[in-house]
Each structure stands twice: as C-alpha cells, then as structure tokens.
Amino acid sequence: MGLELRQQLKLTQQLVMTPQLQQAIKLLQLSRLELLETVQQELLENPFLDETEPEVEPQETPDPREVLTEAQAEEELVRTADWENYLGEFSSTSKQALSRDSEIPEEGMSFEARLASKPSLEGHVTWQMRLSDFTEHEVAIGEVILGNIDSNGYLQASMEELTSMIQATDEEVESVLMRIQRLDPVGVAARSPQECLLVQMEVLGYDDPTLVSLVRDHLEDLEKNRYKPLARKFKITMEELKDYLDTIQTLDPMPGASFSSTEPHYVSPDVFVYKYGEDFVIILNEDGLPRLQMNSFYMDSMKGAADKEKEYFQEKMRSAAWLMKSLYQRQRTLYKVVESIVGFQRGFFEEGVTKLKPLILKEVAEDIEMHESTVSRITTNKYVSTPHGIYELKFFFNSALDLNDGSQVGSESVKALIKQMIADEDTKKPLSDERIGEILKEKLDVNIARRTVAKYRSAMGIASSSKRKQYF
C-alpha cells in the first residue's frame, strides 16, 4: 500500500471555551463576597475600569425665616441648657468633658490595639501553670501534653508517645497530667469521659460510692437509658437514681468546648424576597458591589497611542467591557432563577417549609429557558432572605414522594413534619419510626417506609425513640 499526501476539506462544529466564557461561568458560581473580591481585583488591574460615584441627594436649604440670629441662639441656649449636667456634681469640669477625656487616648491607638484575641485552651492552661509552682521541666512536659489535646479538651496521645516526645519518665508525665487536670477548666487533658467526670467530682467533693460507681462503670448504661437494671443493682429507687443523674448532668463532659476556635459563619443574602400585598417582590442585594464604567481618560488616550500601546489598550478595553457584561448577565440570571423559584414554591413563601413542593433543576431551567448547568451554578453558594428566614437556593430543590391521589409532596416538607411531630411527642412515650410513618399516611396520605423515616430522622440529627425516651 502506497503512502501519499492528500488535501481534504472537513466541516466540524465544536464548543470552544474562550477565556471570556470561562470568566462568565466563574462569575455565576461565585458567592457574593467572592464576587466583591473579584471585582475589586479587576478594578486594581484594569485601568479601563472605573467605579462610578454614588449619587448624592441634594441637601435642602434651610428657610431663612427659621434661621435664628446669634442673640436669639444664645438666649435659647441659656433657657434650655442642662446646667446641672454641664457643671457636673461637685466639679468644675463637665461630665461630657470628663467622658471625652477618657475617649481621647483610645483615638490615638491603632485599630489592632483596641481588640483582644479570644484565649485558646492551651494558652489558658499554660498561663495557670506559670503562675503555679510548676518547675521549668514540668512546664515543658505540660506544653507537650497540651499540644496533644483535641478541641473538646481530651488527651489524644498515649503515655508512651508523650514520654518519647520529651525526656521524662512515666511517673513525671503522670504527675504533671494529674495536676493539669485539676486546673481550669477542671477535667482538661482527660483520657476518657469517665476520667474527666471523676476528676470534676473529686474537685467538687462528690464522694458518694454509688455516684462514683455509676460514672466509672456504668456511663454507657446511663447513656442507653438502662435505668431499671441499675436501680436493682444498687438497690435504690428510681427517684434516688434521678437525683444521681441530676448531679451527673451538672458536670461538663467537654471542658475544652468553651475555648473552641470555630467562629460563627455569617451569611449575607444575595436576594431579598418580601411580600407586598398579594405578590412577592424580589430585590437583589447590591450593597457594596461597585458600579462599573469605562474610564474616559484612557478612552481618550487610546486615540493617539502607538500601535503596541493601542493593542494593549484594546485588550484591556475588551476585558473591561466583557466583565461589565458578565456581571449584568449574572444579576439578570440570578433574578430570573429566584423569580422562577418563587413561582414554583409559592406555598413555602406563603406558609413555610411544610408547604415546600418537590422541585428539580430541570423544571426551573425549562421555565427560564436556560441550561441546567447554568441554574446549578447560579444557585451555588447563594442565599435568599425570605419571610421565614434565610435559606440557600439549593434548599428549594428537593426530591418528591408520591401521594395516593397521584400528586407529590417534597421531601423537605416531610422532614419538617417529622421534626414537628418529634418536638410535640410525649418524652416518656416517644414516637417510633413506624408510628411516625403511620401518622404521615393519615395526614398526607403518603406511603412512606419505616426505613425512609429513619433516614430522614438521622439526616436531621435526631436520635432514635429508645434514646429519646425519658423515664423521669
């Protein structure tokens, strides 16, 4: 078979992801705070982008007839002044001046100097060790111990691992560990919940043998509500056992939790939905988002620029124009998606989560005539403020459960009903998963299996009926 060169024409169609298209897709899935950072960065890098000044409302000029003369103003001051407050109590200096003097030193301080950092658990215990009669060697052992505790205050290293980290014997490490456990918070660096509670009981003077045995040997039985066997074993009544439980519940099983470094997550809604009359009004949150425009100075400078400079200017100008267009498209898409969600989930916005309907991305995409991937990106990391609280846009998309009449109900609505039923149940006779399924069938006419109820209950972090049962 011979080899030869041959020319051939071929017509194909393919999708090319240009940098501009990639930027537009990226802007869709950015959260509001990430969007602000991206726009601010573009403002710094692109000279053609400029931020418009906010419109200043004109100030009203006072009526000349209402302006007091200097003599009239002085007479009004003499008549209405609070002389007691002005002169102060037994002082030649006014109270305002005294308070002002106390504020002046603070004004000269830096912003960082006015803030106090939250103390860490390790720093708090180390501070106590250095104020106590710990030797330098014992402090060094204590720092190794504190470096191996978790956020709840429990020691995560074995004695062999601790002794290998620092030149010390088992007896020295154990001695320092016992002293640390009796510092504040009491029970810190414990190796088990039993040890943590026993140390707290020792410090508080709880030396009842039954109480000590309950904590040391039967903590798991108490957790699983095995009260009657315990009452028979210790030959006590249920009321006496309840008193012991009340005492144990005053102890802190997680002494380091109050020093946790986790910070609250604050959410700034991207959209606000208000009810106005019989309709709902959608308002995009554009607070802090710069209003962009093309810089007129560089636009004029571009006319007399050299070829290389003009090429650079044209590239930056196209980039600025595309960013402005992408931002507009993002806000427009977000508005249309929220408008479609409000239409589909009007029952939720009217009455709450129990009226949430099943909804999938495809339904919203077909409603606004966009692709599912676009709807998925625009609903990522976006939050909406509703009359019933702040929710992520993904919350409104949930699976469906079939009703006997052929209609459907949203899974989130079923979860809300399960949560409400458990909140209203008799704690001495909690509802089983099977009973909850029967009640749902009566209320919603929906056939839901017991395992489905258990799955929804576990997803909401609710314990089973045996663990929810209270005997007292």
UniProtKB/TrEMBL annotation:
GO terms for cellular component: DNA-directed RNA polymerase complex. Residues 311-470 form the RNA polymerase sigma factor 54 DNA-binding domain. Keywords: DNA-binding, DNA-directed RNA polymerase, Nucleotidyltransferase, Sigma factor, Transcription, Transcription regulation, Transferase. This is RNA polymerase RpoN-/SigL-like sigma 54 subunit. It comes from the Bacteria. Residues 48-60 have a biased composition (Acidic residues). GO terms for molecular function: DNA binding; DNA-binding transcription activator activity; nucleotidyltransferase activity; sigma factor activity. Pfam families: Sigma54_AID (PF00309), Sigma54_CBD (PF04963), Sigma54_DBD (PF04552). Residues 111-298 form the RNA polymerase sigma factor 54 core-binding domain. NCBIfam families: PRK12469.1 (NF009118), rpoN_sigma (TIGR02395). It comes from Pseudodesulfovibrio indicus. Gene3D superfamilies: Homeodomain-like, RNA polymerase sigma-54 factor, core-binding domain. The keyword Cell wall biogenesis/degradation does not apply. The keyword Nucleotidyltransferase applies.
